[in-house]
TrEMBL record:
Sequence ranges assigned to domain PIN in this UniProt record: 1-142
InterPro entries, alphabetized: P-loop_NTPase (IPR027417), PhoH (IPR003714), PhoH2-like (IPR051451), PIN-like_dom_sf (IPR029060), PIN_dom (IPR002716)
Origin superkingdom: Bacteria
Family that this chain belongs to: Belongs to the PhoH family. In the N-terminal section; belongs to the PINc/VapC protein family.
Annotated protein name in UniProt: PhoH family protein
Gene3D superfamilies: 5'-nuclease (3.40.50.1010), P-loop containing nucleotide triphosphate hydrolases (3.40.50.300)
Length: 448
């Protein structure tokens, strides 16, 4: 239900599918949810595997398609279905006749039937794994959907240059100017660890650069446009720290089609994305409008069904958008001026639900995906592939604040896209580290 292609992810290991799992798949197949779609895909895959197989072939195990090893033998295991009732049932300490207990009973039976083989129960259900460990069954999480082994290895988007950098990399340096922009060509061993559109800085100085081209041990870097000064403000907003400055450079660059911003609450993700979007929609006329969407996962109790259009239904979830528009909308000009500005902004910012994204194509749009840490990698692919010609996609989120069941920091769709896009010349990423909301919010974030 979590990954419909999981059958093909276990390499040389054999898979045993309890009949209770098929029953649970059957119960979840109806509807238009992501889980129901996944279940139907699994059912089609199982049907394709069984097609044309005799009863004896099914009993002996169906070969799973996979790559061939060096000896010319298939490197994948076989798929077995439960064909006999479980002889062993969980002890009386596990009350009730739940599907989980039936699966545990099947694992105990397999352990007894195959004493020389290790039987492993793979599940995304933490409580089922705890029960299995108590009964002496080896249990594991499903690891194939992890983008990284450790979230601390996640690409941060910036790099602090050592003090000796220019001594070791500036011997054959070239510099030139083009359309008011300053570029440098540098060579050296450290460049092998750089990524396209990565922010470079030296903590001892105010120098900041962005990587424009990479070719082996050679790179072209550009001096960063400084958005910390009022002269280079973006829709009235200036960058308050180094990471925000890097983020605004990425958001305003027409050559970058995908930007991801990670950061805790109050680091300015939404405000920066909206300010850059309004500057490019209303001033530069680079995009037609801003499309904003997010996953509707409530923090507390759900408020039930909401009346109205798609936009009206999404409005309660878009409090962050409204709060930031109050900052971005000019306050002078009297009541009429503020009302006119609010009407103009509302005509250029559209709120859309994720539920209706399949089959759509956004052309010349500035698409903001808020709270992206609550999306799976498959949902993220569905959304980003909606981008048509001239569309820029911005993903915002905080992987330390995941509200979706069965997702963690290493399996979140946001972690997945940050890792997959880091080497693409038209993608950029920045992890915002400093909270700029208020001194109260920053203190609360650190101490509470």
């Amino acid at each position: 239900m979590h990954d419909p292609t999981a059958l093909f992810r276990f390499k040389e290991h054999d898979i045993h599918l309890p009949m209770m799992v098929l029953e649970e798949l059957d119960r979840a197949k109806k509807g238009v949810s992501e889980v129901a779609r996944n279940v139907r895909q699994v059912s089609h895959l199982l049907d394709d595997l069984i097609a044309g197989a005799s009863k004896d072939e099914i009993d002996r195990g169906l070969p799973l398609p996979g790559p061939v090893n060096q000896l010319g033998e298939p490197s994948s295991g076989r798929l077995y279905f439960q064909i006999r009732p479980t002889r062993l049932s969980p002890p009386a300490t596990l009350p009730g006749n739940t599907p989980d207990n039936d699966i545990l009973g099947m694992a105990l039976t397999l352990q007894q039937d195959h004493p020389r083989r290790q039987v492993t129960l793979v599940s995304k259900d933490i409580n089922l794994r705890i029960k299995a460990a108590i009964l002496g069954i080896h249990a594991e999480d499903y690891y194939n959907d992890q983008a990284l082994d450790d979230v601390n290895l996640l690409y941060g988007g910036t790099h602090n240059l050592p003090t000796s950098f220019w001594d070791s990399h500036g011997k054959e340096m070239e510099s030139w100017k083009d359309s008011g922009r300053t570029f440098y060509r540098v060579q050296g061993p450290d460049i092998a660890n750089w990524h396209p559109n990565q922010g470079l800085f030296q903590a001892e100085t105010d120098a900041a650069f962005i990587v424009r081209q990479l070719r082996g041990m050679e790179a072209v870097i550009e001096i960063l446009r400084d958005h910390t000064t009022p002269n280079h403000a973006v829709w009235g907003i200036t960058a308050r720290n180094r990471e925000q400055n890097f983020a605004l450079n990425l958001l305003l660059d027409p050559e970058i089609d995908f930007v991801s911003l990670l950061g805790a609450a109050g680091t300015g993700k939404t405000l920066l994305a909206l300010a850059a979007g309004l500057a490019q929609v209303l001033d530069a006329k680079r995009y037609r409008e801003i499309i904003m969407t997010r996953v509707t996962v409530p923090v507390g109790e759900d408020i039930g069904f909401l009346p109205g259009t798609e936009e009206e239904k999404m409005t309660p979830w878009m409090g962050a958008l409204m709060d930031n528009l109050e900052v971005l909308a000019p306050q002078e000009g009297g009541e009429w001026g503020r009302a006119a500005t609010a009407d103009l902004l509302s005509s250029k910012i559209k709120i859309r639900s994720l539920n209706f994204m399949r089959g759509r194509t956004f052309q010349n749009k500035y698409l903001i995906i808020d709270e992206a840490q609550n999306l799976t990698s498959k949902q993220m692919k569905t959304l980003i592939t909606r981008a048509g010609p001239g569309t820029k996609v911005i993903c915002l989120g905080n992987i330390a604040q995941i509200d979706t069941p069965y997702l963690s920091e290493t399996t979140s769709g946001l972690t997945y896209v940050v890792d997959r896009f880091k080497d693409w010349p038209h993608g950029g990423h920045v992890t915002l580290r400093r909270g700029e909301r208020s001194r109260l919010a920053e203190f609360a974030s650190d101490r509470l």
